[in-house]
Amino acid sequence: MEVSAYPQETVSSSSLRRVMIGAIVGGIIEWYDYFIYASATALVFRTLFFPTIDPVAGIIASFATFAVGQLVRPIGAIILGNLGDRIGRKPILVVTFTLMGAATFAIGLLPPYGAVGILAPILLVVCRLFQGFGTGAEFAGVSVMLTEYAPGGRRGLFGCTGAIGSSTGLTLGTGTFLALQALPHDQLLAWGWRLPFLASAILVAIGLYIRTRIEESPAFVRLIEQQQVERLPLRGLITQEWRSLLLVGGLAAGIQMGTYVFLTYIIAYSTVQIHFAPSTATFMVTLAGVAAMIVTPIFGALSDVLGRKFVFGGSALLAAICVFPYFALIGTRNAVLATVAIVGLGGVIIQAMAGTQGSMFAEVFSTKLRYSGFAVGREVSAAIFGGLSPLIAASLVASTHGAYWGMSLYLIAVLLLTFVVVLMVPETARRPLRA
Hints:
This protein has 20 helices and no strands. It is an all-alpha fold. The chain has one domain: MFS general substrate transporter like domains (Growth Hormone, Chain: A), CATH 1.20.1250.20. The protein starts with 12 loop residues before the first helix and ends in an 11-residue tail after the last helix.
């Protein structure tokens, strides 16, 4: 039965404000972690952790460690998402934040291959496993919390707050590495690359301070009061809401692939294949992050007015149309045209999906299965289409001797898959949350 998930008047403005700030900080640390790792992967990890193989193979190996972190995300989603539906949203959000931050800080302390040999990439993979495990329930948790707190008719706007934090984290992460590239290359390799990872401790301290002071979701509190908490959320998810689970996985495919190729792998592609200076490639992606910070709340608000399906589906279809022009503009080796491409597709077009996903994914599940459903559906898709997409893209480029047509066909296929799934999803923007 479609009913309001909680009495809206129980939510105070101060509680909502703390949740929003906590979500933004969480999004910042999640994507700051991931994008400083992605930037380091493209710029220094090949040399530091895989120095014995050729440059193209080194890029593939570096992104393989990136993929490892993505592949463990579904495990974190299953375990932590289930706990989020059993013991509450708040305690799990503290756990996810701690795991992500601790793993990122540890990466900044790792010795290079030259000091400890094969142990260096092994330790890097271990850190990525912990980072990915925590990330598996982070975005779902903040999005569920925000959607359950949001005033009626404004869930799209409030639900995009986590994505705003993500784009801010992207900007901080790539901007930090952009600044570090002013260092002499030997100093960047010796110690400069460590600074962004170690600095994450500051963000973690701030985030934990905020998250330990937010109040539990009113919808979950009501669930406890009515004694309707699901004892085994994963089983309930598979038996009761499997269709919603599959739909969210298909919807997430386009976002995950788009983010990790158009805004992550593109740094490596632009430097290795197009021969842009690393600072130029990083600057382009930083500008895309700034653009995303601006347009994400606009798209979230538009989804409240025009509907989730229109905004999300339009983004997927337009992105598919723009894939070949995107790589063609970058291939001109003109920095201005390449910037237009990266900012336009990565910083604006795919952000319509990113800004809508928080509310859209949460709205298709009932309260008792919302955290686990959102997390598992999104993160299984992230493992396949997020973590593997840079690796697939790099491999396709290598197999076509530097050409981008094979990679482009793969990207278009994923985006069209997402568009087809959008057509199958019910419109939820004007419906009350499922109890």
